[in-house]
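To the team - copper (II) ion complex, inputs and output below.
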Amino acid sequence: MEKSTERFPLAHVFGFVLSLVLTFVAAWVALEMNLSFTIVMWIIGTLAIIQAGLQLFMFMHMTEGEDGKVNIINIAFMVFCAVVIVVGSIWVLTSGHAAH
Amino acid sequence: MGIKWDEILITGDPIILGSQIAILLTTLGIIGGLTYLKKWTWLWREWITTVDHKRIGIMYIVAAVLMFFRGGMDGLMMKAQTSRPEMSFLDAQHYNEVFTAHGVIMILFMAMPFLIGLMNVVIPLQIGARDVAFPQLNALSFWLFFSGAMLFNIAFVVGGAPDAGWTSYFPLAGKEFSPGIGNNYYAISLQIAGLGTLMTGINFIVTILKMRTKGMTLMRMPMFTWTTLITSVIIVAAFPIFTVALALMTFDRLYGTHFFTVAAGGSDMLWANLFWLWGHPEVYIVILPAFGMFSEIISTFSRKQLYGYKSMVVSIVAIAVLSMLVWVHHFYTMGSGALVNSFFSITTMMIAVPTGVKMFNWLFTMRKGRIKMTTAMLWSLAFVPNFVIGGVTGVMLAMGAADYQYHNTLFLVAHFHYVLIPGVVFAVFAGLYYWWPKMFGFMLNEKLGKWHFWLFVIGFNVTFMPMFFLGLNGAVRRAYTFSAESGFAPLFLLSAIGSVILAAGFAVFCYNIYWSIRYADRNISSDPWDARTLEWATASPVQHYNFAKLPEVKSLDAFWYMKKDNEGLTLKDEEIEEIHMPSNSGLPFLMCVAFGIVGFFLIFEWHLLAAISAVLIIAGLIYRSFDYNDGYHIHKDEIKKTEGAWRKMEGKVNNHVS
Ligand code: HEM
Ligand SMILES: [Cu+2]
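Output:
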């Protein structure tokens, strides 16, 4: 708030455009290229992780925290949520009846 | 685009025609009234464009009370339909629409805004701040909620109501089995309202972490502030899941993708999974602020510090973590296997531990306290045993194996009403009676309050207690009728009678508001309950800058010690400084309109119109990016005048405790 913020937000615009590009590439790979299912999954999975990393640095102020402890709590919380949602969903949806 | 004009308004049903006429007349009445009384500019300047957290809070509460009325009417309609076997008041389709509307409205448009409204009014005051961290974002949160809520509410007269339950499970909710536009309302309007909630979560995290007054360390924060902080963290963790799930649902329904449709490799169970990954944390989002309010009220009216403050904090944090780890208990019967079900049974039962700790803390707070039986305190007292019934039946449902018996019966419906009504509705009533004088400068009538309390609590138990037994006898939920041979008739009738008593309680509540606005004593002190936290250290109703001089905190229950040590209560002229405040803005309201228009077009699948009007939203965002308005300053003279007015007044409270 104190600092003047009337500078052009270059990093944000760049991150935004790059995110769009990554998304469209993923859609293009899945819809237009005739690759096997596993290869498509690997490619779009990789693109998704790159995009998540990109957003963390471009928008989520990963590198700007003034206080190390707060940053560690934030990252731990983030990892916890991601693991619960992703690993949890895969576990729940692929065991039991779904496994047969 | 093929707009079918004749299908926009629902026709051919007398109840709906009646509602359409009523809605039209009310709208005309409001417009006419405002014009006649020349209140348009007042409405725009004082309320619609406001960024004051107290006013935003009040608007949330007003909207929530209206939504409670709507959701309650839906509840009564269902109770009327099942009061006798083979009733033909609502047909099956209509019943489906009504329980869907009831569930969504009660949770998302009644419980959430009611709690967020009280949070808005109280939290900045409790931490000794002048506003939330992002006042204009706060207004946007409200207006997005309002936009989503209004869209959802017109569904039943315009285009058709959603009918797949508040959970909207696939495949039923998909295009194949629900071809109408009804379920588009669910996807789009909840999306818009959910954005607002997410912003509220972020706003309150920053507010509480960054804007506490001097001396208020984390461990000196009032319990309501703590629970709001943790609630906001859960909102930020859970709501994005719902955002994504709803977006995928929208793609499936509007653009023919197959995320949740089994055709072409989608997974319908993925919806249930994502829904409850958000849905279970959501129930803790509504319960935790309520816990905080009970803590404040019990401590105030027992005239004691909250017992076991640290263990309270630890248990809220534990509940927050566990709440993310239990979602599968909503669909054990999906058949994920013994290992998955056992894991989630255990995590679910573990939640009972921190909740139990809190229960004992409240009881020990009251032990040896000098308890004052105000209406707010009565609600808090009734909460304890009623919520325990909900909790114990919850532990029964937590056992995966046993749940195969209870699943989808009225036992479950009784359970979650025993959690949600004592946990949320009792809490917001308690909070409303408690903080009403802070908001408006007069009290709600205590005698009517007690009528309201007894009718509501008795009615609630008579309505929902029979449902436990109906469920155990095999009555399923979401069924619009039952046969005489089933033997369910007496308990269903008893339950219906209970809901009439419940409704009478709500009517007394409405009358109480009316009575108090007209007749209540305006000459009351700014601290009528002899309370303990900082919101009572300033005027009632609170002046728009909250505090002329920011209070300094030296311990828990700061205001209590300020009164006891007679410290920091006075204001000297030389202490007054100019105060910087944010300016009002019409942009949040315009965004509400823009989102409403885009949402409406999307719901009707008029894609071109939706794309064109989406420009409005983007224009709003761009405008905001270049908005460098830095707010304004309040002059010393004005502050001196305002402060002089309330500090001199030695109002006594008339019989606030019977
Ligand atoms: C005020 C009195 C209330 C009455 C008379 C009432 C009555 C009912 C009834 C009859 C059902 C449907 C049972 C069935 O056939 O499956 C129901 C479902 C439900 N109620 Fe209430 N209720 C009330 C308050 C509330 C409140 C305060 C909440 C939440 C804060 C709530 C949340 C729900 C939900 C989520 C459902 C499930 C909807 C669905 O099946 O999709 N109710 N209620
Ligand atoms: Cu749950």
